Amino acid sequence: xxKIQAIxxxxxxxxxxxPESAPEDCYIGIVHAADDFGILVNxxxxxxxxxxxxxxxxxxxxxxxxINTILVSTEPTPTRRFLVDRAGKWKTQIAAMYGKETSAKKx
Length: 107
Known about the structure:
By secondary structure, the chain is α+β, with helices and mostly antiparallel strands. It has helices spanning 80-97, 103-106; strands at residues 12-17, 26-34, 38-47, 52-63, 67-73. The chain is built from two helices and five strands. The mean pLDDT is 83. Helix content is 21%, strand content 41%. The protein is globular, with a radius of gyration of 13 Å. It has a single domain, classed as SH3 type barrels, CATH 2.30.30. The termini are far apart. Strands 4-3-2-1-5 form a five-stranded antiparallel sheet, with helices on one face.
């Protein structure tokens, strides 16, 4: 389990879960809270038209015991560079590791 201080509210994260822990293998969002049991992540996406974060309508609690790896951005505000370029590619790479297609490839 990581030290809770390493995962702070407001940080953008891409959380890779252990297989069969949740419907998706990887969730991208902004940390709302972290404690000894896990992290609460507000699920977000990058709105291309507004060039800013969109979403904030759903959250997911991820217990530490179900987390495999976490990609973390410690920048003070969410950036396109992390949410689209880095985390999005990372999510695709994780799906490829397990032989799964991402929604972008299914279209």
